[in-house]
Design goal:
Elements (H helix, E strand, L loop, with lengths): L2 H26 L1 H20 L2 H4 L4 H13 L3 E8 L4 E6 L15 H9 L3 E7 L4 E12 L2 E11 H9 L6 E5 L2 E6 L8 E4 L8 E5 L8 H12 L1 H15 L9 H39 L1
Antiparallel strand pairs: 1-2, 1-5, 3-4, 4-5, 6-7, 6-9, 8-9
Helix pairs in contact: 1-9, 7-8
Length: 294
Amino acid sequence: MSCYNVRFFIRNVFICIITCSIAAFSAGLVQQELDGYFAGIDTALSTLQRSQALRSIERRPAENLFIRELKRNQSYYAFWRANSKGKIVSEVIRGKNPTRPGTSVENENWFKSVKRNNEDFYTVFKDEERGRYYLIWSKPVLKKDKFVGVVCLKIDLWDSFYDYSNGVYFPFSIKLGKKTLFSHKWNDKMTYREENLAVPGIKSISVRYIPEKKEEPLDTIANAQNSATDTALSKSDSVRTANVSSKPEKKNKYPFGVILLIFALVATSGVIAYLFISKMRKDAILKKIDQDDF
């Protein structure tokens, strides 16, 4: 095998090790990443809520702000703004020009709740015509602690998960109750773990993903062997095994340990590769010396 072929082989081994390690690491964090995705949207809307453009009585600055945010964020579908009396003074839908419908929402539950409590209001609804689910997030606009209106963001749920999926390569599936809302490279025959997501406005939404494969604990294997060979100890071994397995599974991940494992695998492979190449070079030099002697 030539040195070039050895380098090519080692490079492929490195790629496989790193890819597999990152895949396991990323899949374990899918729940946290999705929760963080929606938390980021909430934070961005809070920033808009406090902007001077929304506190002003002028409409154009706020509308320009809405247009900019719609262009930047694929999951945003529409913004609208209501004044303190519950009148829609601005509405901006993705791909359309701003409108000022003047529709009254004074008696809508969400508006009354935001105005009464000066707190955020989150809800979800399904657009029957488009077959899409949307989040409606509403936040109060305050000026010197006085209520002056509401800013609302309409979020396309399907687009949200599609936007997230563009940055990952492992399979996952989003369930809204018993319905599949979105899936990415998913197969229903896969062995999966399901975790609830913390999306404001939705109670029963979860993510399914492929868990990391874990080796069977050594003490469990020992207990199984003892129970097969020693009848007198089988009962106590079974109790001990049951106690171990009855502990709640820790949901917290340890990414630092995974990262150390990746570096250890890479370092070990590098040392092996270096020794292997060094031996090949040494053999080639000795062979050349022998040929020169003849």
